[in-house]
Every structure is written in structure tokens, then in C-alpha cells.
Amino acid sequence: MKTCMICPRKCGVDRTKGQLGYCRQPAHLTAARAYLHAWEEPCISGEKGSGTVFFSGCNMHCVFCQNSEIALGDVSKQIPQERLSEIFFELQEKGASNINLVTPTHFVPLIIPALENARNQGLFIPVVYNTSAYENVDTLKALEGLIDIYLPDCKYYSEELSLRYSNAPGYFETSIAVIDEMLRQVGVPKFFANRPIGANAYNLLMEESEDDYEGPLMKSGVIIRHLMLPGQLADSKKIVKELLHRYGDKVYLSIMNQFTPHGDLTGYPELLKGVNPDDYDELIDYAIELGLENGFFQGEGTDAESFIPAFDFEGL
Fold first, then answer.
1. How many other C-beta atoms can be found within 10 angstroms of the C-beta atom of residue 310?
2. Dist. CA 221–CA 179, nearest whole Å
3. Contact indicator for 110, 101 with CB cutoff of 8 Å
4. Is the separation of the CB atoms in 166 and 188 below 8 Å?
5. Which residues contact 67 (CB under 8 A, 6 or more apart)?
6. What pTM does this model have?
7. C-alpha angle with apex 95: 89 to 98, nearest 5 degrees?
8. SS3 for 306?
């Protein structure tokens, strides 16, 4: 925190003295909400929801970010380390399927002791690390043994797109190195049941009530998310092809169509419309043709803003 090099931005700022780097966050924990979230992949949310902790700040600042009010740090509440451990237990007591750390990268040195304390005190549900995958591998190595499920994005294949939309040089190569480390730590997917979810599983939670999902919950493993962007079918195909070639059935792919135009996109007219349904269908067909067996797809209506949580400090 005194010379912050936690993520690939390597800002080098002294956060203990109030200096803010790319994530715009100080040297203490901040968050915007902690609650049971029903709209993750079904093996993450289950019937009662994933115990999500939405941390404030982000090291990406994607121009289309749906959670921009917390990503930019505009909505944040300070949380003592001991309070974070308490939040984990409160979510567990509410029946959370897991503890889901959302955008935690810039707080890893503070999250580690909170997780260690919670584990020592009896936290038994899996812990999910939900990230953009713009990470330092060394930072992830410090989490080994504390994280059960890694939930990284793989946003862009094209360097042009990663620079235009996230100012993130080397994004694809960085994300692949990060996913390699995640897979090394937690291995192939395991579930709290003897049967897998099944090939080409649809995200029922996006179409129906979460109560309709009867499949097993994930115990450990990696789910790689890819959010399709408007007009970027070719880039999405490259990502799917590379991920399947590299990882096969060692991971799950979650191919998402829930892009929602959000915020001021005046300078990005190509993003003012949602994803073309025909493009999304073509991407899914392409993934299946390439041999995708472990995958989640989304139904219609996922681009509604109702899926964006209210960041009102609930549960903090």
C-alpha cells in the first residue's frame, strides 16, 4: 500500500498517505453493498443467492461499465477489516451459496487477513474471486488456499479494443497468464454433487426464478466470463477459440449477452445499441462447433438495467 504495485497499472502511489492511483481507492477497505445476489451463473447463485461483497473502485474503468458509480469510487463506505469478516459470516448465516468478492484486486492485502480470520472462525462456504482478470500473477499467488472459485473476465482479444474501451495495454496476454495461475491453484471444476451441470447449460436465472434451478453448486474451479460487445463478433470468436484451444473442458465458459449501454457513450457511438441477437446466436453456434462442453449461455432480456444492483450500502 505504500508503493502500490498490486495490479498491472503499477501506480507506485503511497495509499497510506492518501495518494490515489488508477483504482482511486485509499489504503482502507471500501464497499458499496453486501447481499444475496441471484444473477450470477446458476452454479454460483444456486437457490438463495451468492453472498456478494461489491468493493468500491476498479483498476479497469471500462467506458461501458454498468457499475461505474462504484467503479469510479463515487459510492463507497469504509469497512474495518474485522467488519469484513463479520459480513462474511452474516452472508453465510443467510444461506449464501458462497462468498463472492466482486472487484477485489486493489484490496487483496486487506482481504487476505479478513479471509484467514473468517476461515479460522468457521467460515465453510466456498469463496469466489470475481475479477476483470487485469491482475498481477504474484498478487494472485498470495491468495492460494483462500480462494475456491475463480470467476475472471476475458474481455478483449484485440489490443485496439482493450486500449479504446479500458486503456488496458496487454489485456489479453495478461488475462491468459492470470487464468493459468487460477487453474493451477484450484484445478478442474468440482461440484457439491456427483453429476456435472451438463453441456451447454443455459443460465436459467436470467429467464426464470432462481428457485427453478436444481443443479449442483460449484465447490471449486474456474468459470471464465466473456461479455459480447456490440459489433464485435469477430473479436468474441477469437476469444472463444483461444480459450477452448488452451483450456478445453478444464474450465467453464460463460458467454454473456447482457451488455447494457450505460453512462456517457457520446464518444463511442458503436456502443449505443445492445448486442445483435443474431450475432450472439452465431457466437454460441461457433462455440458448440468448436467443441464447447462446459458452458453457460444467456437468454433474452439480460440487457435490462433491472439487473444492476442498487448500491445503497446494504449489508455493510
1. 9
2. 11
3. no
4. no
5. 54, 58, 103, 308, 309, 311
6. 0.92
7. 70
8. helix
pLDDT tens per residue across span 181-215: 999 999 999 998 644 333 333 333 333 334 445 67
* DSSP string computed for 239-264: HHHHHHHHHGGGSEEEEE------S-
**pLDDT attached to residue 171:** 98
Strand intervals (E) in the chain? 29-37, 50-55, 77-79, 99-102, 127-131, 149-152, 190-191, 201-202, 218-227, 252-256, 295-297
What are the start-end ranges of the H helices in 137-229? 137-141, 159-166, 171-186
49-80 b/e (C-beta count within 10 Å ≥ 16 → b): bbbbbbbbbbbbbbbbbbbbbbbbbebbeebe
CA distances to 12, 103, 120, 205, 224 from 130, in Å: 24, 6, 22, 18, 10
Q: Distance between CA 146 and CA 5 in Å, rounded? A: 21
Q: Which residues pair with 55 in a beta bridge?
A: 31
d(CA 218, CA 201): 14
